[in-house]
Design brief:
The chain has 511 residues and is mainly alpha-helical. It has helices spanning 15-38, 41-44, 54-58, 63-87, 95-109, 119-131, 162-167, 169-173, 179-208, 213-221, 224-232, 237-252, 256-267, 277-286, 292-314, 325-331, 338-346, 352-376, 381-399, 409-415, 423-433, 437-443, 448-451, 454-480. The chain has 3 domains: 14-235, no CATH class; 236-323, no CATH class; 334-401 and 403-511, no CATH class. Helix 22 packs antiparallel against helix 24 (454-480).
Length: 511
Amino acid sequence: MSVAQPRTAPHAYDWRPLLLLNVAGIGLAVTFALATARIPMARYFPEAAISVDFVKMLAPGWERPTVLYIGLVVVAFAWYALALAAVWRGARVPVLLTFGFPVLFAAALLAMYPPTAVDLFHYQADARTLWVHGANPLVVPPSAFEYPIGISWMDKPSPYGPLWSLLMLPIGVLPGDNYMAGLYGLKLLAAASLLGCAALIWVLARRARPGTETLAVVLFAWNPFVLLRVVGDGHNDLVMMCFVLLALERANRASWGLAFQAITAATLIKFGAGLLGPPLLLYAWLHTPGGTRARFGALWLPLLLAGLSLVVAYAPFWEGAATFETVRGQTELTVTSTAEVLATLIGNHEDPALQDVTRMATRVAFLLVYVPFLWWSRRNFDQLLIGSFTIFMLYLMVGSSWYRPWYMLWPAAIAATRPRTWLAPTLLAITFFGSFPDLIEQFRGYWPLLNRSLDRMVIAPTAVQFVPPLLVWVAGMLRYRSWRLDVVRSREAGPAPAGPEVARSGNVTTA
């Protein structure tokens, strides 16, 4: 008589990584809650009368704020490292847990006063310019109307596209004059954009390599840099990236109508997304079956509708060249960028003529790498994805003369879709070191290592942000001898074939 052997449940979970992930999640949530309790928004808005920075919030002087801020970053990243360790080997984890903790993190950060940037207040003031006062926020600055506190750049209209202003309808109208409710509404929108990006990252990772989707979401949506910049500060960058990721996901399915509409929507929020328009168009052209006539027949209507979307979105805001005055003005500034570093190394970083030269030099340098990557990205979807990551990263590191640390959310969101590649170490370097430029900018005048030289004070924030990720990225290229950074070696698959192109399962073709 045979005895039936017990079978493992098909959805059984390994308790060890599950326990580690829960411990890490609880640790992160508690860390964020304690940080929020230290700097609650209600304590400083509107009582402070002006937007304040974390120097004034954390403590007087500079020594204690330095320790507290570094402590927050180090402790949060330690919990994050534990979470990554729990899922790194592909442990099966409940989807509810994977996405539930980011919801908890967002809830813990919702009431936090923006710790490192105060764009949140400018968003609200611009929303009220349109939806309360009936003026055009692309040409009318917040200073034209009453606002409870003084904010930076009050004399500058919105630098964003018209879709961002249109999305602000509920933020501008529903709270009425309850400014605090409006600020919480903006933070809720930021949290929703985080979860939207996480869902698209899950889809893209699972489609390319089933079993990596949990790691992909933890890599991004549990990342302290992402959480503090998006929900803590309330930045709108992931609203843009939701549409970018949607465009890439639809391109992966050859759904060109939605792909072009999504990349257009992203550009109508922040103009940087437009850099991915040409690679997407070239990829669509070459991956549409048939000859020239068939391709044109398949693509002309999606492109026409995308163009009409641009016209319709801008029509209510159009004021000629003045519509883009703020954006144009930003392109003529040199802020914490490679162009500023070059001006410092050559001579005086405050010399307008020298700034013009270095801005032009870095833009030409970026263009020289942009065109080859645009062409390189055409071959298959993996290369389109990795090319999009690289274009964003190199634009921010080289081509943009106006740079702020949270812009690195753009390449980080794309990198997370390929968590078993060299993009993951690059993402970790981007986000960890991207947590410190704000601190350096605040305190460089006090630190003996920097304050002995004006050049060091100018160069330090940019060097800390750019050099480590750049070294990691270059190390990946040297290791795999490929721009792709995605040659995966695993015990299951065995050694990867030599050469830059590797056959993939699913949607990727072999060169």
